[in-house]
Design goal:
Length: about 375
Amino acid sequence: MRQEDPVATHAAHTAPDAGSLAMRRAIELAARGLGSTSPNPVVGCVITDASGTIVGEGWHERAGGPHAEVHALGAAGGAARGGTAYVTLEPCNHTGRTGPCAQALIAAGITRVVYAVCDPNPQASGGGATLRAAGIDTGAGLLAQEAAEGNAAWLTSVRLGRPYILWKYAATLDGRIAAADGTSRWISSPESRADVHRLRAESDAVVVGSGTLRADDPHLAVRGIDGFTAADQPLRVVLDTHATIRPTARVLDEAAPTLIAVAEDADIRHLAGVELARLPYDKYGISVDALLRELYGRGIRSVLLEGGPTLAGAFVAAGAVDKVVGYLAPVLLGAGPTALADAGIGTIADALRLRITETVRIGTDIRVTAVPEASPSAPTALKEH
């Protein structure tokens, strides 16, 4: 039986080579599936022939459709025989709506497979062992951190049994999300607002609270993204404990599916025909844990949290924020609501410490991306042992 290739496993720590370039390309391809593959992961695959030339590329485009390896093998044709497959996630080893990718690689005559991240899903893992049993050289861990970050939503859902949560907000430099009179249009730049539609397009669900609904009557559907189809629209979710939403709310139109989460004892007689989820509630409103269980059961693996400070505080208090994206505008207000309300933090020692991973200029604003320092969903460079 062939053993795992230590060179491939540790290649991420050496200077870029042809293998690293191929895997980085596979990571780029995987990102094209964001927002359309749940409850499956995003995966990219690049196939090189015996000389190292790329002969096939593919990515997992849609849940239920062919996996990345199958697309790449189809593109490579006979040139795949004797070649190497670079895959961002360990090839699957089970038959679901599609066949096992490990067997497809074996049948195509691939002689070496390098994958970035081991599959933590017990129902699909074991592809690496199947490949080695067939005499195929395998390597794991190449650019594992980059690949894991690109697949953070799915990896989080597998490890924690809940969706991945990205909290997005826009604020002034003094931390205000609206003026004292409640007006907030527009704090952020047009470019920032367009960027939010990209975040929506990459998510399975967009969540707001009843306060945001009353103040802004948001639409929440994705607009202005090239190639985005109506079938890819994320689920619009409104947390409305007492079912105060009006039937004329924009979020109830036909542009995208909508779910209204209400308390178990809420009066819903005025919401005939609206999809509802009756959930328990606590001092913050609808229970965040109950909501996440509901969404997970519906196949939701990534959530964009767009609600106001009260809802954000409830998610932080529940330990359910995996990434923060803040758009900071060069504006001062001096009064008005701040981005985060009560999050159950009473002393500086209990503060949620973040690690900034990116700062980018977006129009006139600065987009800051950060993750909790001790996040249970933080991607890790998984390797086989």
